[in-house]
User: What shape does this take?
Amino acid sequence: MSNQPVHTVTTSADKAKIGLAVCAAIAGVVGFYLLAGQTTLIRAGALILGLVLAVAFAWTSQSGRDFIGFAGEAVRETKKVVWPTRKEAMQITGIVFGFVLIMALFLWGTDKLLEVVLYDLILRWR
Assistant: This one.
């Protein structure tokens, strides 16, 4: 990703917009639960309206625009990833399963060995 300078100074207007966005999201969720007697469509509408307002408030702030830029860069970087072929993915999965099986057998054997040493040889409980 590109190295952009970090801006730590936010104006009070941006802080107010983020605060309004948080309040709108909370209002949407609270409205969803307060309208429990209404139809599901009305309840979902209240939730969606609150979330849309929250996104709109956040979008207009500098932090929101910075986040949108960051998300766009993340998508561009994700498109650059070289994904493994099906054959490679199956081989890697087989190696992982084999390693897990070997480790499970090793831990089971270690547990049984310690059980024999502790209970049979040292404590003589059996």
Summary: Residues 84-126 form one domain. The chain has four helices and no strands. The mean pLDDT is 90. The helical segments are 12-34, 40-59, 62-79, 86-123.
